[in-house]
Amino acid sequence: MGKKAKKKTIGRGQSDAAEEAFKGSPHTLVIHRGLVGKNVGHLVHDFRRVMEPFTASKLKVRKKNVLKDFINVAGFFNISHIVAFSKTESSINMRMLRTPRGPTMTFKVHSYSLAKDVISTLKRHNMEQKQFQHHPLLVMNNFSGEGMHIKLMATMFQNMFPSINVNKVKLNDIRRCVLVNYNPEDKTLDFRHFHIKVVPVGMSRPVKKLIKAKVPNMSNFEDIADYITKGGNISDSEGELDGPHNEVVLPQTIASRGNIKSANSAIRLTEIGPRMKLQLIKIEEGLGEGNILFHEYVTKTEEEVALINQAREKKRKLKMKRKTKQELNVKKKTDKKDEMKKKTLEGMKKKAEEEEESKNEKADSGMESDDSIGDAEYFKQEVGEAPDPELFPMNNKQPRKRQAGSSLRDNYLPYKKKKLETTDDRTKKQKRESNKNTEKVQGMKKFSRDNHKKNDVNKKNKLGTRVKRGKKVTNKKSGRRR
Predict the structure, then answer these.
(1) At 150, phi and psi to the nearest 5?
(2) Rounded distance between C-alpha atoms, residue 50 and residue 316, angstroms
(3) What residue spans carry the Basic residues bias annotation (predicted)?
(4) Burial class for 395, CB neighbours closer than 10 Å (0-12, 13-18, 19+)
């Protein structure tokens, strides 16, 4: 039985160094502003995949969130750049902000293709998850033109991705590539995202199959030499694309099979999306609130720029004035609140002292009244007569005293106990109630009979007489008037 494999432990120094390297790398926050639709939402998700692992892949933007919210938390989460997508009726815009002091670049998205659309056009795609564990390699082309805005744009893209030290870089960590190409004819940018694959050069297709992890089916061959010689005639369409333009000598051994140090290997790129065509519209100082350094369509004179600066300065001063006024009002409010709290505590303390004094006064007055009562009684016993009320003005009425030997229990008279009802008592009670009900019913019947009689008499009086030519006629048989 073999030895139990030991777990690989990372030293504390290595973990601290990795954490410092992670914090020192640029972090990009990719968000959207306003209603952008389903397709632009997918574009935001694909752009986050490009910026992994130094981005928030599962960030949820709410309707209430504004740009200032993300700017305020940028310093806490070591966020160096913010990419915000927005959509208008005419176009889709992408803004890049460098925190915390700017500048801000606004790009117009002329056209784009999502990652799923790009992958659907490929026969073989490489979308392994391990390639997103490391940042991509940035490749920039045609950014050597004249113009300050081109240099600033190139610097912005370079600072969005971590720098690579050629002497310390590990080739196994470079799995992706981001290409940004500038077209000086129409002043647009081509943004592409590729997967990097390294394959050995000078091997036939059967040999490539043999060095793979999966062993090919060789049941039709008697010897492996037959497999290599007969299988070598098979055309390799991928090998036809290789040449001096993509062949290199590896300085390091790569994890894939057949790629060893100092051997020739071919580098193949497979596009994994997204794909965008951008155009720079304007560059602003600060985070979208400063002077406009560059604009593609609008140019202003020095006088117009001075007027805009004056208006912006006036607005800034007014804002500062309102802010200081608000701070003073808040301070006054808090001071007033503290003063009221202090007064309340003093009043509560004073009230407690007054209550204590009143209790003491009541106790003293009770003692004096007892003394005065005792003096009046003493005067009566000695003199034999009751004293004048003016002599002892306090309270001449003596409180009632209990008799000696008597207690509260002796003077207590309990309530009369209720007599328990028996069956005879219940039957008598029921008979009394039934008699009352029968009398009530009989009275109601008698009242109704009397009312019926009265109604019959009234009907006879009304229907029995009629007037004919001013004379009353009575029916002889019925006795009614006719």
Answers:
(1) -70, -45
(2) 38
(3) 314-324, 460-482
(4) middle
C-alpha to C-alpha distance for 473 and 467, rounded to whole angstroms: 7
Residue 46 burial (CB count, 10 A): 23
Q: Does pLDDT of 379 surpass 50?
A: yes
Q: Locate tokens 């008699």: which residue?
A: 435
Residue 107 DSSP symbol: E
Q: Is the alpha carbon torsion for 296, 298, 301, 304 positive or negative?
A: negative
DSSP one-letter string for 61-74:
--TT--HHHHHHHH
User: In this structure, how many other beta carbons lie within 10 angstroms of the beta carbon of residue 199?
Assistant: 19
Which candidate, 422, 402, 420, 419, places its Cα nearest to that of 411? 402
Q: Give burial (CB, 10 Å; 0-12/13-18/19+) of 171.
A: middle
Specify the DSSP element, H or E, that contains 443.
Answer: helix 423-463
List the one residue out of 369, 421, 411, 413 whose CA is nearest residue 393: 369
pLDDT in tens, 174-213: 999 999 999 999 999 999 999 998 888 876 666 666 666 6
Backbone angles phi, psi at 472, to 5 degrees: -90, 125
The two structure tokens encoding residue 233: 């005639």
Residue 462, both tokens:
């009304």
| Per-residue pLDDT tens over the stretch 277-287 | 999 999 999 88
Q: Is 71 exposed, middle or buried (0-12, 13-18, 19+ CB in 10 A)?
A: middle
Element (H, E) at 450: helix 423-463
CA atoms within 13 A on the CB side of 418: 3
- At 249-258, the pLDDT tens digits run 888 888 877 7
The span from the CA of 93 to the CA of 86, in Å, is 5
Residue spans of the domains in the chain: they are 17-195+271-297, 300-399
d(CA 114, CA 44): 10
CATH 3.90.1150.10 describes domain 17-195+271-297: no
